[in-house]
Design a protein that fits this description.
Layout lengths: L1 H21 L3 H8 L12 H22 L9 H9 L5 H25 L16 H24 L6 H20 L5 H11 L8 H23 L3
């Protein structure tokens, strides 16, 4: 229940911020929505990208602070997979958390759509010029960054600074990824709006496989660090 509520709140505030950021830049978001049609690559709206990245980073930091002691503050199936791979969670618990996270994302997207006027413009799509393969590896490497920072922050017993460090990692990942892939880094974040809107792109799978690959890479990196006793 804590993971469901936490993911709902995380997605709601992140989606709300994304919706506000996209309002004055309709032409840019329209170009992103038709990324696979070979349109001319649009220029990034840097102020909008910064607003979106801040929305996701702050929303994650705040909700981790609230729910870390309740459900762990995971909010991401890729992180659930990583925790299962290192033995911190059983596979059954990881599956249950993933279901709660997906339902939370759907709820967050639904609340955002119901409360805010206008279309729900928070889907993750590939911008013109970004191939499916590039999008897959962008999602993989950015997810690896966030998960590595999260494991380091928690492993270092950073205490009250851990949520801030993790939020900043997501902020950085979103700054890089939003323009090219929509900056998912989280399968639940992508599938929630798609279900609410009822639209799925043929490359939706990259938002599951990319973060999953990033989680595996982060686990391998963490085990290597432990093996050489480097901190």
């Amino acid at each position: 229940l804590g993971e469901f509520v936490g993911t709902t709140l995380f997605c709601f505030f992140a989606f709300a911020g994304t919706t506000v950021a996209s309002l004055p830049a309709t032409s840019v978001t329209d170009s992103g929505a038709t990324a696979t049609q070979g349109a001319v690559q649009p220029s990034p709206n840097t102020s909008s990208l910064l607003y979106v990245a801040l929305s996701f980073g702050f929303s994650l930091a705040v909700n981790i602070q609230i729910f870390a002691g309740v459900s762990g503050g995971v909010f991401n199936p890729a992180i659930s997979l990583g925790l299962a791979l290192i033995g911190a969670h059983t596979p059954v618990r990881a599956i249950i958390l993933t279901i709660a996270q997906v339902l939370g994302s759907i709820a967050g997207a639904g609340i955002t759509s119901g409360l805010l006027p206008g279309p729900l413009n928070v889907r993750t799509t590939l911008v013109a010029g970004t191939s499916v393969v590039r999008g897959l590896f962008i999602e993989m490497f950015l997810t690896w960054l966030v998960l590595t920072v999260e494991k380091s922050a928690i492993g270092a017993e950073a205490g009250s600074t851990a949520p801030v460090c993790i939020g900043l990692a997501l902020f950085l990942g979103e700054l890089v990824g939003v323009f090219y892939t929509g900056g998912s880094l989280n399968p639940a974040r992508s599938i929630g709006p798609d279900i609410v809107i009822g639209t799925f792109d043929f490359y939706h799978w990259i938002y599951w496989l990319g973060p999953a690959m990033g989680a595996c890479l982060a686990v391998a990196f963490w085990k290597l660090i432990r093996y050489v006793h480097f901190e």
